[in-house]
Design a protein that fits this description.
Elements (H helix, E strand, L loop, with lengths): L17 H4 L5 E6 L5 H18 L5 E6 L6 H14 L4 E2 L7 E5 L2 E5 L5 E6 L3 H6 L5 E7 L7 H12 L10 E6 L8 H9 L5 E6 L11 H13 L1 H8 L17 E3 L8 E9 L7 E9 L4 E9 L10 H19 L3 E6 L5 H10 L4 E2 L5 H13 L3 E4 L5 H9 L20 H12 L9
Parallel strand pairs: 1-8, 1-9, 2-6, 2-7, 3-4, 7-8, 10-16, 11-14, 13-16, 14-15
Antiparallel strand pairs: 4-5, 5-6, 11-12, 12-13
Helix pairs in contact: 2-3, 7-8, 9-10, 11-13
């Protein structure tokens, strides 16, 4: 390699990661809070490992895995290109001249001279993974490991890659990186804790507080301090990487901020709705949320119909009419355009009825585990950006959220559940947040 490919790694990797950088252990688990730069360290290390083989004229391959293939491009694929650039090499697409060539179908980054390649897969491509003979593998990285279902998913793929180890490597070196879930009984928290002290495992914890090189900017620190003031437990979970536990109440109600009128200096720019339905047995609710220019979220109005105790319950056509009346009244009151109308993905009858009656399409939310969806609501609340108009219609929203609790019998499990009683506005709020993550600045 020429001098232009020299890097001062002490200026790129914080001292807290020395044990990771020098690790000769087969299995390396890196956990920690947001802005700890653990993923950047792994990316740099993987590129460094490959370059040692390239210097000898050898072909060496690295496999990088996410739970779902659709997340690859904006995360690990870009991160590896960044790391290659840090070593002074160029990554190009198409037929341009450069050191490495990047392709997206499939996702690969290949060294032109030796054929050494970074392969990127989602575990949803596992059958394709099993059928591919990559060979000459020196390392495997599971990014955002907490997204995987269980340890067995690692075990299945590990065996596939171990068989294809490079003949000059003592073993395939595995890396995991993740932010610990707040539930201490999450399977990955228990798994990583059980590996502490095992001879073949390095278990490493980091947070933004370990930064000695100035990677955490003043703007980032200000954001961290704001969340620390708003919700200290959430700060510990998000930025210190501590599994702080769930408690009994799902939300900190002090983060639900009442207002009497809209902000003069931060106007509404659009309105979204979110719907949870019950039909014959439980309540149907529609929520109208306003988004401001500064990304504040305001609960504007609530529709709530419960059939409990009623002899003549509303038919789907009447519920459809109720939604349209709510839709029309909200638009006329606030005079802003609608963007997304979200509904429970399990609800087909009302969605179809509304489209039949009024030509309005409601978007079915793609559901994940309840605890994961609730965590996104926590992110919005901890940002201090959620408000509600203090009106009679919105009182049911606040009352239901005050009573919204985890089922204590499930807290010491990998899959804690909420008590599903009087939780309709809670579900609708969850649907709204998770269907608008990017727009709300909660996903990048």
């Amino acid at each position: 390699m020429s001098n232009k490919h020299v890097i001062n790694i002490q200026k790129e990797v914080n001292p807290a990661f020395k044990s990771v950088w020098t690790s000769n252990k087969p299995y390396n688990i890196l956990k920690g809070g947001r802005n700890s730069f653990k993923s950047s360290v792994i990316a740099l290390k993987l590129v460094y490992m490959m370059l040692q083989y390239i210097r000898k004229g050898e072909k060496a391959n690295v496999v990088v895995l996410r739970k779902v293939a659709s997340t690859i491009r904006d995360s690990v694929y870009n991160k590896i290109q960044w790391a290659i650039g840090k070593f002074g090499f160029t990554v190009v697409a198409g037929n341009e001249s450069g050191d490495f060539k990047a392709t997206v179908a499939p996702f690969k980054i290949t060294h032109n001279a030796t054929g050494s390649t970074f392969y990127f897969y989602g575990l949803d491509q596992f059958e394709k993974l099993k059928s591919n003979d990559i060979n000459d593998i020196i390392a495997v990285w599971y990014e955002e490991s907490a997204e995987f279902e269980n340890q067995e998913e690692f075990d299945q793929t590990n065996v596939t890659f171990m068989r294809q180890v490079h003949e000059l490597a003592p073993f395939v070196q595995f890396f995991w990186s993740y932010n610990p879930p707040r539930n201490p009984y999450s399977w990955i928290n228990e798994w990583s804790d059980s590996m502490i002290g095992e001879d073949d495992y390095l278990v490493h914890h980091s947070s933004y507080q370990d930064d000695e090189l100035g990677f955490v900017t003043e703007q980032m620190l200000a954001d961290i301090e704001r969340i620390k003031r708003n919700d200290y437990d959430y700060y510990r979970y998000l930025y210190l990487g501590e599994p702080v536990g769930l408690g009994t109440n799902v939300y900190n109600m002090s983060l639900f901020k009442p207002i009497d009128e809209l902000f003069d200096d931060d106007p509404l720019i659009l309105i979204d709705t979110a719907t949870d339905t019950g039909h014959q047995v439980s309540a149907t609710t529609h929520l109208a949320f306003g988004l401001t220019a500064k990304r504040k979220v305001i609960l504007l109005d609530t529709y709530y119909y419960s059939p409990q105790g009623k002899v003549n319950k509303k038919a789907p056509s009447e519920l459809s009419e109720g939604f349209f009346d709510f839709y029309t009244k909200t638009r006329e009151t606030f005079k802003k355009p609608y963007d997304v109308h979200t509904i429970d993905s399990a609800e087909g009858a009302l969605r179809n009825q509304i489209f039949k009656d009024y030509g309005l399409r409601l978007h079915p939310i793609a559901k994940k585990k309840k605890i994961e969806m609730i965590d996104n609501v926590h992110s919005l609340l901890a940002d201090g950006r959620f408000y509600y108009l203090d009106t009679p219609n919105n009182k049911v929203f606040i009352e239901e959220h005050k009573k919204y609790q985890w089922d204590e019998k499930t807290l010491d499990s990998d899959n804690p559940r909420v008590i599903e009683v009087d939780d309709h506005t809670c579900d609708a709020f969850i649907y709204y947040v998770n269907d608008n993550l990017r727009k709300l600045g909660l996903k990048f």
